[in-house]
Amino acid sequence: MISKRKSLVLTVAAVLFLAALVPYLQTARFDFVGLDDDLYVTENPRVKEGLTPGGVVWAFRTFHSYNWHPLTWISHMADVSLFGTDPGRHHLVNAFLHAVNTLLLFLLLRTGTGALWRSALVAALFALHPLHVESVAWISERKDLLSTLFGFGCIAVYSRYGRSGKTSLFLASLLLFLLSLLSKPTLVTLPVLLLLLDLWPLERRERPGRLLLEKVPFFLLSAGSAAVTVAAQYLGGAVRSLDAIPLAVRVENALWSYVVYAWKAVWPAGLAPYYPHPMDLPGWSAMGGEALFWKALAAGAALLAVTLGVFRWRKRFPWLATGWFWYLLTLVPMIGIVQVGSHAVADRYTYVPLVGLFLAAVWGAAALAGRWRGKRAFPVVAVAVSLAVVAVLGTLSVRQASCWRDSESLFRRAVRVVPDGALMHVNLGNILIGQGRFEEAVSEYGEALKIRPRYGAALYYLGQAWMRAGDEEKAGGYYTRALEVRGDREKGFYPIGLAKAVNARYQLGAMAARRGDAREAERNFAFVMRFTDRYRGSMLRQLAEAWEKRGDEALAAAYREKAKAYGEAAPSREEGPAGGGDGDGGR
Question: Which 3 state secondary structure label does DSSP give 344?
């Protein structure tokens, strides 16, 4: 027979599980969005095959999407095998994983601390905070949910090991940590986190040297995962160079970001899927650098003051140290010292780190309220305040999740909340051009260029748009400007990405061939042929026609002869954006 205490714990756990699902049930009617969902599901041929032995091998060998996260790929493949490409089912899997993560967090806190209601409140904040919507409502962020699932599982099993000392539990926690890293390398700092948990709530009395030595296998896994991830992101071109963003600016942005995330935890307003890096904003060279410096200085002073205070009171309030350093440590991999993509901060990065702030806040509030515990009104007031906070956060999460209904609603929200986000203007333009709304799309591309006049993606997509409209002169001008954006052109690297550079060169070559400029066509087609054979036959035939227009029958005949070995495939003259959006790298 289940005791009343266990029955209460199970009831609370069930309520938390259901509460975590509520804001995301609406996503069953949502679509994929044009922000990396093509890379992960809709345009990924391996994933669309479903779960196959070949797909599993590919998952462990690929650096596709600038990362190495084989379990994430396998998860998406399993979804396709079960549900096809029905986006609603994929969304619901994300919602279920979030609910399981909420349940795991509650149980590991309840088991570790013995505090039922405080653990439940931390889990409720985790379940319903709107900063976490991005990690749940965005299908491509499955990796966040899986990494956290195994990470929380690792901590839960490790806590049992810390109390029992059983080797089997230690090995199980190590395996769960490996699975977390294979889903996404977010928790590479977990070994240090385990040392924090040894102090509180586990209160292990072993010598510090022994506790540190015990974590060596965890540190080795972290180091291996970090090395592979950095290699994947560098090889994919997602990491921005120190020339693009100097180290000093990265440090300044990192310090300020810690404060920004903490403030968003308290006041989660104006949330968006993209916040541009300060160096990509208008006016950076004039005054942005100085403004960021002073913000960073103030942020650094505040962080140092809090850290020193937490360290001073660590023995009296050990939960404060665990919560604060949990927040600081788990943000380290995403704080931007290694800058991946063009964002300054990202809501999804708070999925695990906010647990530390929630823990410190809830235990702190309980400690401050201790003096009123003897008064009759205390339980009623405490419950009322807690429920009010949770209800407000839940309502905000429902509203925030609704923005992920489809690509247009998501990007319109983004440009409304953060109008200086050039990337989101481009992505909205791509959606509009795919719907045939030419003038609106060109306007969005123009807004992006007002923010970043040398923004290669906006220039490229304007070329595509005018190509669709039949104005080759304008299209060619934008393609040329896009290719002139800084980059090592001799090595084939372009900030717009190699695929866009190849297509721009093809279109410029085709235009030149049509007007009989054979040498210009040869120059552009030669670039394309360095990277793909797919359209070689078409290019050779176009070169033959160009030389024929120039009156050189010998060269025309030579190109026709070469073209016989190839098929007829060629990009359309009106080829445009595929209805999706540019990603930001390393998401």
Answer: strand
d(CA 432, CA 429): 5
* Torsion sign over Cα 510, 516, 520, 522: positive
Residues 398 and 431 in one domain: no
CATH of the domain at 528: 1.25.40.10
One domain, residues 124 and 201: yes
- Report how many domains make up the chain: 2
Domain that holds residue 532: 421-563
pLDDT, tens only, 428-459: 999 999 999 999 999 999 999 999 888 899 99
518-552 pLDDT, tens digit per residue, is: 999 999 999 999 888 878 888 999 999 999 998 88
- Does pLDDT of 32 surpass 90? yes
Is 210 part of a structural domain of the chain? yes
* Count of beta carbons in the 10 Å neighbourhood of residue 36: 21
Query: In angstroms, rounded to a whole number, what is the distance separating the alpha carbons of residues 447 and 6?
Result: 58
Instruction: Identify whether the C-beta of residue 445 lies closer than 8 Å to the C-beta of residue 425.
Output: yes
In angstroms, the Cα distances linking 295 to 85, 281, 302, 328, 419 are 45, 16, 11, 18, 21
Do 328 and 433 lie in one domain? The reply is: no
Contacts of 514 (CB under 8 A, 6+ apart): 472, 542, 546
Ramachandran bin of 423, using left for φ above 0, alpha for ψ from -120 to 50, beta for the remaining angles: alpha
Angle between helices 142-164 and 190-199 (to 10 degrees): 40
Q: Which two tokens stand for residue 89?
A: 């089912």
With beta carbons less than 8 A apart as the criterion, state whether 340 and 239 touch: yes
As to burial, measured by CB atoms within 10 angstroms (0-12 exposed, 13-18 middle, 19+ buried), residue 345 is buried
